[in-house]
Amino acid sequence: MDFKKRALASLIAALPLMAQAQFSQNDVNSFAKETTLTFAVVDNFHNKDAGFLGKIILNNQSDVALAAGESDWQLYIHSVRKINTEHVAGLNIEHVNGDLHRIVPTKDFKGLPAGKSLEIEFDAQVWVVAYTDFMPRAFFVSGDHKPAIFANTDSEDMSQFVAPFERENQLRRYNEPKDRTVLITPEVRFERNQQTTTKVSQEDALKRIIPKPQKVEFNRGVAKLDNSWQIRFQGQLKNETMVFMQDLQNDYGLTLKAEPDHIKANKEKLISLKVNPQLANGKSESYTLEIDDDRIDIVGSDNAGVFYAMQSLLNLLPANSQGAIEVPQLELEDSPRYGWRGMHYDNGRNYHGKDAMFKLVEQMARYKMNKLHWHFSEDEGWRLEIPGLPELTDIGGYRCFDLEEKECLLTQLGTGPFKSGSGNGYLTRSEFVELLTFARDRHIQIIPEIEGPGHARASIKAMEARYHKLADEAQKVAKNNLINKKNTKKEAQQVDISAATQYLLSDPNDTSVYMTVQNYKDNSMNVCMDSTYAFLDKVTYELQQMYREAGVQLTNLHFGGDEVGAGSWVDSPICQAMFADPNNGVAGAGDLKPYFTQRVAKLLEKRGISPGAWEDGLMYDRTNPFKRDEFPNKTFTANVWDNIWEWGVADRAYRLANAGYQVILSHGTHLYFDHPYEAHPEERGYYWATRYTDTKKAFNYMPDDVYANADYTRTREPIENLEALVGRPLPQLEKPENILGMQGQVWSETIRTEDQVLAMIFPRILSVAERAWHKAPWEGEKVDTKTQEKDWAQFSAAVGLKELTKLVNAGVNVNLPVPGGIVNNGKLQVNTPFAYLQTEYSLDNGATWLAYTAPISVSKEQSIALRSSLNDKSKSRITYIN
Asked: Residues in domain Chitobiase/beta-hexosaminidases N-terminal (predicted)?
């Protein structure tokens, strides 16, 4: 479809808006303000596991009636589940693109009088068991008036516009096959928390360093840190020392004087910081830490090792301590398990602000994590200013109600119709350079991801807007030349649009039809066009300049490669011309993904950059990776995520490693932190990989044996025989040196604010830090459950006693676990997965709250509310008994 036809299609789509308006702007505003729009799940069981019945309830409490018959009004909703129903109650339901759907009246519409309600029942794909599957900010438009958001949906409180889930066919995903999820209750939580039987003293919890050191021996006595201590540092450690001093002052009120070690220290108490490259046989990031009553010695194998020793020392300081602080005397030796200890952060879908990124980097460093995989480009947004391509952020950085996408991207994911809506925005170039410098000083490498060829709608639409702008300018120049120079008609036809097409990512005449997993029809970069690679090279060049300005090198760049819509490019004339050329090694659409990957890999190799991709972007089919020797890069990382065991591809980590790729374990069942903390409808997140992932589940992940993590199928059926489930032999790992490490992932479809994204990451990220740094003795094909339980008890006690408080003190919104509770013999008993985390109860429906310290007497009929509490502001979700 060429651009003129696309514009025409947009015009036709918008025709009802251009009809004579039946409503005034006041009518539109009043209707949306006074009418409630409520989403509801009717039945998840109506089509086995393939779909659900839902409904939209419009309760018109305004003075504005919707007349019977056709009209020019339209109602827009965000629905991540594509709605199959096309006609209901005299209304047409149309899928626009992605999650955006619109509802328009037909001649059969019976109207909606003031004071009346209308139910719109629909059939949609998949199933819904979490309130956050429904998106906020539905809106109403009429004619060419401004849209208005239904007031009750303009909220992050899902209860304002989602009806409660109470029945089995609302709380469970399906009944064929049987959904074996154990639905969470206070009693289930209590039972699970009771499985941790090891009691950990406060003293031992304070001593538990996260992540756990390789070897530590505690001695008698303590060192008393106060302002009388001095710091002496080796000259190369100036940056690390400055960060350390800042942390001591900001967090603990300690102001220590620091001098280079050529300046002799007096007899006062001393912290000594040195580098010894021979330490730990030269293994990078290693360190020793010795604490005596008047001396603290830190030696690292490199600067990073010294920095991590500092973090261990800080980790030993009690939360909320100020001025004069006791720290245990010890001798510690430590080295990391993996060189890649990462976190993937998607703010391409929803932007959460600059502060969220700085807080994430700061806390990753506190727990010795060293790789931030920044997913800054997606279908729904482009989040970094690129010099020379302002459209990427002017248009790609914002979503609003603009069907022609001249000013912004099509609204998605609950943003609503205005640029002021949630999820909009981007980092400026200077802000990113600042972030790079901040990360550099904390030994964190930021790996940017330019998504392609799929998941690229934001960049595609931005470059189409650039094309139209520059092509129009070229036409005007040609027209002026014709007038001023009296050129011939033939000369006037030769308009130079080379600048307009320089970075174009779509073939104007491509008529390919496809639908992605996220329900997009137009999000694949055209891999047959040279301008696609010019675009990627331009962005890469600008990224390199930013990194250089920050004093670091861009050594790794991720290009995505995943979830390309089947059918992309097959009807592109440019691609068909490529297929017709017998000399280029591209015979058909099946050759295009490897062709794209080869060109990108070579482009990056010329710039000294190692490429990375998601696993499915590196596979010919379900089991065969692209030939590794086709790529010139020494390192080519693969993020392996798809370990849904019954899907039969969960062995790709070993297949890719054996084929010569460098693998980063990123498995969905344990390491996807956009999934709920527990199986409850009020928990935020998607749940395609597993019904829930809590901090303990992530803690129990075993990266050295991928198959040992095969615990349950998606239906929560226990996996007894993995090979029988898959139905073929499972390859063994032949090249363990190609497993670089592991990382957590957070995707932001349902996450719209800083507080939301930080709560989804913290505290689960601490489990990733633990497993990536420390190999536990209980790990293996046959887990030593007794040792594992003891290890978890110590870890979780440290989290509850000090880490959660430290995080909140640093401005990080954390997820506090909902308590477990039972009434046994008339006594209320309460617990949480984190020892020392305070809980509260209410016996008057939340009017007053009391701290729970020991079992209390209650009556059988009494309604009991429970919550976890960290301080006056940080509370968990409330749960109820009776």
From this structure: 33-188
